Amino acid sequence: LASRLQGIAPTVFSQMSALAARTGSVNLGQGFPDVDGPPDVIARAVAALESGQNQYAPGTGVPALRQAVARHQRRHYGLDLDPDAQVCVTTGATEAVAAALLGLVNPGDEVVVLEPYYDSYVAMIQMAGGVRRPVTLRAPDFRLDVDELRAAVTPRTRFVLLNSPHNPTGTVLTREELTAVAEVAVEHDLVVITDEVYEHLTFDDHEHVPLATLPGMFERTLTLSSAGKSYSFTGWKVGWATGPADLVGAVLAAKQWLTFTSGSPLQPAVAHALDEEPDWPAALARDLQARRDLLCAGLADVGLDVRVPEGTYFATSDISSLGWEDGLSFCLALPERAGVVAIPSQVFHDDPTGAGPGGQLVRWAFCKEPGVIRDGLARLASAD
Ligand code: PMP
Ligand code: GLN
Fold first, then answer.
1. What Pfam families does the record point to (predicted)?
2. Shortest CA distance to 219 belongs to which of 65, 59, 94, 86?
């Protein structure tokens, strides 16, 4: 294995979904919905397949989708983007993360990243030759500690890789927290790559504030998102990067050698979703909120300390209240004990042991049908 991949474990999501399949467990691990997105959007993809839209799209994406993404950013956030220079379609947000880091980070550049982190960030920072500098969102409330953020910045820091709404904690960064990030970025002349794939999946009165909308931030912010989360098409892998032309250009510069272009027939369908189903994500968020409440109440009933998330697909619990000291051991034993799969949050930390800040934290997905959540909870309740 090349050194650029050394020390990076196989992704926990493949491991845990395989475990769920093998043991017939209820999969509350990997975050994917068990109901697909809007049928008219699927029909639009079928129409594109049947009407000959099956050859290479332009590298930046089909114009209809770039224009729809620009309209989306204007409608929701008042951001004005040039769809030809300031939007690049990618193969999911995963490729957007990869292309952004490969396109921007030089060997030795330091990247400040929220910990726990989505696992592809670690792999891609390393593949780009960068050095990660984690800032930990700590239990029980997983807020951003601005002093820790400031302390993580060194003369070699060039980037912040942000994620809000945040996977796995479910924290939605407040305007105050984001303002602090913006101040640090301006003060140290940093570029911020912000992963906002859960932008529409927020609950109660928590509101997603795109970092790019803060004063002085547009020109130093690259924003990433995806149709996977907003429209429940995680398998379509249609994402996008938006921002100033130089940052989006760097994404394209790397993307052209990764995939060249992304799947043609799905792009007009996602454009249709953004333009014609603008309220669908908000309805999904309302549904998810009820499922969040169902899951959190059930986890509390079985004796887990659970933090009610402000957004995303995920709730985090502390398993020490059940007498367990290590989340990974807990999650590896859970299929056998209860027939349920969950994700140990410690694998999203620099210290992946039980002694680290994520050691007793376990992530549960609630982007599932209520019946599936109830089944999982009933199994947990009857576990030994
Ligand atoms: N970032 C975060 C924080 C995620 O949770 C996910 C979901 N899998 C992704 C990126 C990847 O998105 P996509 O499936 O569009 O590649
Ligand atoms: N984003 C989803 C999660 O965090 C799925 C990720 C994946 O399968 N790579 O569970």
1. Aminotran_1_2
2. 86
pTM (global) more than 0.90: yes
Among 162, 102, 152, which Cα is nearest to 129's? 102
CA 107 to chain centre: 25
* Ligand with smallest separation from the Cα of 98: 1
Last residue of a domain, one of 221, 250, 276: 276
Span from the CA of 323 to the centroid of ligand 1 (angstroms): 32
Q: Which domain holds residue 269?
A: 40-276
Look up the ipTM and state it: 0.97
Does ligand 1 have an atom closer than 6 angstroms to the CB of 237? Answer: yes
Q: Whose CA is nearest to atom 1 of ligand 2?
A: 31
- Among 276, 302, 330, the domain boundary falls at 276
Residue 78 alpha carbon to ligand 2 centre in Å: 29
Contact status, residue 364 vs residue 342, Cβ threshold 8 Å: yes
**61 plus 174 within the same structural domain:** yes
Say if 35 falls within a structural domain: no
| Nearest ligand to the CA atom of 345 | 2
Question: Cα(38) to centroid of ligand 1, in Å?
Answer: 20
The finding on whether 177 has its CB within 6 A of some atom of ligand 1 is no
Q: What residues line ligand 2, using a CB cutoff of 6 Å? A: 11, 13, 30-31, 167
Q: Are residues 207 and 356 in the same domain?
A: no
137 lines ligand 1 (CB under 6 A): no
Ligand 2 centre to CA of 234 (Å) is 9
State whether 204 and 256 are in the same domain: yes
Spatial CB neighbours of 182, under 8 Å, sequence gap ≥ 6: 192, 211, 214, 215, 216, 217
Cα dist. 193→137, 182, 221, 280 in Å?
Answer: 18, 12, 6, 26
- Whether residue 272 sits in one domain with residue 294: no
Q: Is any ligand 1 atom within 6 A of the Cβ of residue 310?
A: no
Q: Which residues contact 180 (CB under 8 A, 6 or more apart)?
A: 144, 146, 149
pLDDT tens string for the chain (384 positions)? 999 999 998 899 999 999 999 999 999 999 999 999 999 999 999 999 999 999 999 999 999 999 999 999 999 999 999 999 999 999 999 999 999 999 999 999 999 999 999 999 999 999 999 999 999 999 999 999 999 999 999 999 999 999 999 999 999 999 999 999 999 999 999 999 999 999 999 999 999 999 999 999 999 999 999 999 999 999 999 999 999 999 999 999 999 999 999 999 999 999 999 999 999 999 999 999 999 999 999 999 999 999 999 999 999 999 999 999 999 999 999 999 999 999 999 999 999 999 999 999 999 999 999 999 999 999 999 997
